[in-house]
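Wed. Picked up where I left off yesterday with Phosphatidate cytidylyltransferase. The coffee machine is broken again, so keeping this brief.
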Amino acid sequence: MRDRPEAAPGAAPAGVAGKKSGNWKDLRARVLSAAVLVPCVALCVWAGGLLYGALIVLAMAGMAMEWARLFGFGLETRRGQLCLAWAACVGGTALAGHWGGALLVMVAAVVLGPALWAGQVAIGCAGLSLLWLRYMSEPGAGVVLFLVACVALSDTGAYMTGRVFGGPKLAPRISPAKTWSGSIGGMCCAVLGGMLIAVMLPGALPGAVWRGALFGGLVAIAAQIGDLGESALKRACNVKDSGTILPGHGGLLDRFDGLLVAAPMAALLSLGAAGGIAFWYVGLH
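Structure written out below (tokens, as returned):
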């Protein structure tokens, strides 16, 4: 939910003219990177199999590497290398069908120290959730697309409405750039998107519209919590972005921070859905 560019900790507020000129400066880069990223991710999600699995494992490894860098452990360091390899092992173990083993590998990362272990748990839970939702729920591709689309709509809606309307800050001590208007706008976009996707997916059950709206809103709340959490982490580490791999977005953690909370939430809800169907039908039977 980046409705305005993150301000570096301790930076002096820019003047009014500076705000107006910088409000949309990263929009072109965001649009171009999204034009490449969205079709690639959608293709992998829809195809499933090893293509999707490889995407998730690579994303887990990349985010783990960025997390390690936040604490000063680059790829040239032993701990940085271990973080990357550890996250890949967690995802690879799950792909081999050993879900319990993947959880044990993730928990064992405590040997890396509290800060790095926290990253392994956060990234590992999100990655395992995304794998489980695609392979073990029904319809797998539709469930993941619902989740990813609602997170993306929340993020994009917050970005646009925050720039258009501005207003009171959401959490000025954590992220001075985020506004209440952006938060509300992002949630509204996720609710509308959830309604549309839930109805359009094959095999939609009764109540798909209101359930899509409700769970689209829940996904947006979870995504915004993840976004604020990552902002707090970056502020504590005194950095603006977790990386530079995605123009206009920053790093993988910057772009997918919402999924760190939203994906585990969706997986837990799916465990309560009858017969492993889409998580927005939890409690139907």
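Quick read: The chain has a mean pLDDT of 86.
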